[in-house]
């Protein structure tokens, strides 16, 4: 059997669309390493929060991108306040520039990789073999986020979460640098009416088809 070539899979989409779960499932199915790039922005946000920096100040946000003191296991990375600061500071070109290199290095790993975020298929790995844009209606995403928070023992109200998600969508899509946008060659996966098993099956089916199509193109008859 010929050696498998490197496979890079880019998964983008708005908050609470299910992209993280789908990306992890793809990584496990195709036996590839996985990077949640949102964690980098969250780590910078947590740093900034801890040293009392101002999210409204790009210079301070860029300084917070030295991530040596943040552990990926820090539970505060997943907090709503940190997510909200991450969403604000990720609009700064200087912040994105600081974090781009390690994402590109990960995408270039021998054997391939799966990355999820907002700009993977457009900026970090435009050469990716398969790109998915995972989305869902904002009300559905708000219901999922509330359930996720409650499961973690965090009080959450639908209306507040909905307002927060709409604000994040607007910031992510409206920013000048690397806005959240579907790459022209990305597969749109709307999970509004799907449970997670259906969404994962659709994502795996798409990637397998892409790989078959590209093998057919590269294999001489
Ligand atoms: O899923 P959720 O939006 O809550 O969080 P996340 O994916 O961990 O990302 C946190 C924030 O970082 C997002 O709101 C985005 O604004 C930003 N982000 C980004 O700009 N680019 C990425 N590749 C990943 C995250």
Small-molecule binders:
cytidine-5'-diphosphate
Into which percent range does the helicity of residues fall?
40-55%
Q: How would you spell out the order of helices and strands? A: EHEHHHHEHEHHEH
Strand % is: 5-15%
Overall shape: it is globular
Number of helices: 9
Strand order of the largest sheet: 2-3-1-4-5
Mean pLDDT: 93
Give the low-pLDDT segments: none
From the helix content, strand content and strand pairing, which structural class follows? alpha/beta
- Major sheet description: 5 strands, parallel
Q: How many whole angstroms does the radius of gyration measure?
A: 18 Å
Kindly, what is the distance between the CA atoms of the first and last residues, rounded to a whole number of angstroms? 17 Å
Number of strands: 5
Explained architecture:
This protein is α/β, with parallel strands linked by helices and 221 residues long. The protein has nine helices and five strands; from the N terminus they run βαβααααβαβααβα. A five-stranded parallel sheet has the order 2-3-1-4-5, with helices on both faces. Helix 7 (138-151) packs across helix 8 (158-174). The longest helix is centred in the C-terminal third of the chain and has 23 residues, at 196-218. The mean pLDDT is 93. The site of cytidine-5'-diphosphate has 15 residues, from helix 2, helix 4 and helix 8. Cytidine-5'-diphosphate binds at residues 15-16, 37-38, 41-42, 83, 86-87, 90, 117-119, 168, 172.
């Amino acid at each position: 059997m010929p050696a498998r070539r490197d496979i890079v899979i880019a998964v983008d989409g708005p908050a609470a669309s299910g992209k993280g779960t789908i990306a992890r499932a793809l990584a496990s199915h195709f036996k590839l390493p996985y990077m949640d790039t949102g964690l980098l922005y969250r780590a910078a946000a947590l740093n900034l929060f801890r040293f009392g920096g101002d999210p409204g100040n790009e210079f301070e946000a860029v300084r917070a991108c030295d991530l040596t003191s943040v552990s990926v296991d820090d539970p505060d990375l997943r907090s709503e306040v940190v997510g909200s600061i991450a969403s604000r500071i990720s609009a700064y070109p200087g912040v994105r520039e600081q974090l781009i290199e390690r994402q590109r290095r990960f995408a270039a790993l021998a054997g391939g990789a799966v990355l999820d975020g907002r700009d993977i298929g457009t900026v970090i790995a435009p050469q990716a073999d398969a790109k998915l844009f995972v989305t869902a209606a904002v009300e559905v995403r708000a219901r999922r986020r509330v359930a996720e928070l409650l499961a973690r023992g965090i009080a959450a109200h639908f209306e507040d979460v909905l307002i927060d998600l709409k604000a994040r969508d607007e910031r992510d899509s409206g920013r000048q640098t690397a806005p959240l946008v579907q790459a022209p060659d990305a597969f749109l996966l709307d999970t509004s009416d799907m449970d997670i098993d259906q969404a994962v099956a659709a994502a795996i089916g798409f990637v397998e088809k892409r790989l078959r199509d590209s093998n057919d193109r590269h294999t001489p008859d």
